[in-house]
Design goal:
It is found in: Cell membrane. InterPro entries: L-PG_synthase/AglD. Its main location: membrane. This is Membrane protein. The protein is mainly α and 353 residues long. The protein has one domain. The chain contains 13 helices and no strands. The protein starts with 5 loop residues before the first helix and ends in a 13-residue tail after the last helix.
Length: 353
C-alpha cells in the first residue's frame, strides 16, 4: 500500500531522473560514437575527412548558414504577430541551433531558450511560446514530408534491404502522422494549457530558473488562436514552404561533402535519401543531444545501400558536425551577449486577451 510519504519521494525521484535524461542521452550517444569509431579504420576515416579540404568545409558551412537563415525567416513568418521584424528571429534561430547541437538539452532546450529570449524584444511570453510551438510544428511536418520523399526514392532501389527499410520508414511515418495530427488538435482545440505548463517547467529546468518568468502567465491558447487566425494562413504557408526548402537544402550538404571526399557517382536523389532518413532517425532519438552516435550510425546504415563504405560514411558525419561547431560556438556567445543586454528590453507587447 502506498504511503503519503512515499508518493512525494517517488515524484522527486521521477523529476530527478527526468532532469538527467539529456545527460544520459549524451552519455549513450558518446558511447555509441566511440564504438562506431573503434570498430572501423580511424586512419581511413581521417583520410576521407581530409579530402574534403578547407574549400569543401567552407561550402558545407555556407549551406548550413543558408539553411538556418531560411529557418529564421520561416519562424518570423509563422510567429511574428508583434511586429518586431525579422532580425530577432534570424539571430535567435542561430542561438536555438547552437544550444541544441552543443549543449546536453535533449534537442529541445534551444526552443525553450529561443522563446524566452524573444521576450527580450518586448514580445509577450505567451505569444513567444506559441510562436515556438507553431514553428516547431511546421518544422516537424516538413521533416515528415522530406522523410516520405526519401522513403519513396529508397523504394526505387533494387535491393531487398532497401525495400525493408523503406517499409519501416513508411510505417514510422504513419505513426508520425497520428502524433502530428494530435499535436495540431491540441493547438486548435484549446488543449494548450498542458503545453504551457510543460514549457514553463522545461524553461525552469534547462535555464535553472527557480520561479516562472513574469511573462509566463496564462494565455498561450489565446496566442495560438492569434497565430492560427484565418487571416494569417498565407504567412503560415510561406513559413512551411521555407522549412521545406531548408530540409531540401540540407541534402546539398551531403552531396557537396561526398563529391569532395571522392564519391563521384553520388546523385542528388541519393543525397536526399541519406539526408532525409538520417535526419528522421536523428529526430526519433531526440533525447540524445545532437544525435551523437545516432547520426553516425544512420549514415553508415544508409550509405551501405548506395555502396558507400562505413569509413566514408563516418567521415561524412564528421563533415556535417563541422558547421555545428563553427556556427554553434558563436551562437552561444551571442546568447550570452543578449543576456547581458537584458536591461535594455522594452515593455512586453503583443499581449493576447
Amino acid at each position: 500500500m502506498t504511503t503519503a510519504s512515499s508518493a512525494p519521494l517517488r515524484h522527486r525521484l521521477g523529476r530527478a531522473l527526468l532532469r538527467r535524461v539529456p545527460l544520459l542521452g549524451a552519455l549513450a550517444g558518446i558511447l555509441l560514437a566511440l564504438w562506431l569509431v573503434s570498430v572501423h579504420d580511424v586512419g581511413a576515416v581521417a583520410s576521407a575527412f581530409g579530402r574534403v579540404g578547407p574549400a569543401g568545409l567552407a561550402a558545407v558551412v555556407l549551406v548550413r548558414t543558408l539553411i538556418l537563415l531560411l529557418c529564421g525567416f520561416a519562424w518570423a513568418k509563422v510567429a511574428d504577430a508583434s511586429g518586431i521584424g525579422t532580425g530577432p528571429f534570424l539571430l535567435l534561430r542561430f542561438v536555438r541551433e547552437g544550444v541544441n547541437v552543443l549543449l546536453p538539452v535533449a534537442s529541445v532546450g534551444g526552443e525553450v531558450l529561443g522563446g524566452r529570449l524573444l521576450t527580450f524584444w518586448g514580445v509577450a511570453g505567451p505569444l513567444a511560446a506559441a510562436g515556438i510551438v507553431v514553428d516547431l510544428f511546421f518544422q516537424v511536418i516538413g521533416l515528415a514530408l522530406f522523410a516520405l520523399a526519401g522513403a519513396l526514392l529508397l523504394a526505387q532501389v533494387e535491393n531487398a534491404q532497401a525495400a525493408r527499410l523503406a517499409t519501416w520508414c513508411a510505417e514510422g511515418l504513419v505513426v508520425s502522422a497520428i502524433v502530428l495530427s494530435a499535436f495540431f488538435a491540441v493547438q486548435r482545440l484549446g488543449g494548450a494549457g498542458a503545453v504551457e505548463r510543460r514549457l514553463a517547467a522545461l524553461g525552469r529546468r534547462f535555464l535553472r530558473e527557480t520561479a516562472p518568468s513574469p511573462d509566463a502567465r496564462p494565455g498561450v491558447q489565446g496566442a495560438l488562436d492569434t497565430l492560427w487566425a484565418r487571416s494569417r494562413w498565407c504567412s503560415l504557408m510561406q513559413g512551411f514552404c521555407l522549412h521545406m526548402a531548408a530540409w531540401l537544402l540540407g541534402a546539398l550538404e551531403i552531396w557537396i561533402a561526398l563529391k569532395c571526399i571522392g564519391v563521384a557517382d553520388v546523385s542528388f536523389a541519393e543525397a536526399v535519401v541519406l539526408e532525409s532518413l538520417s535526419q528522421a532517425i536523428k529526430s526519433a532519438a531526440f533525447p540524445v543531444p545532437s544525435g551523437l552516435g545516432v547520426q553516425e550510425g544512420g549514415l553508415v546504415l544508409l550509405g551501405a545501400l548506395f555502396g558507400i563504405d562505413a569509413d566514408t560514411a563516418l567521415a561524412l558525419s564528421l563533415v556535417k558536425r563541422v558547421p555545428d561547431v563553427v556556427l554553434g560556438l558563436p551562437s552561444l556567445l551571442l546568447w550570452q551577449l543578449i543576456e547581458g543586454r537584458r536591461s535594455l528590453v522594452a515593455r512586453p507587447r503583443g499581449e493576447v486577451g
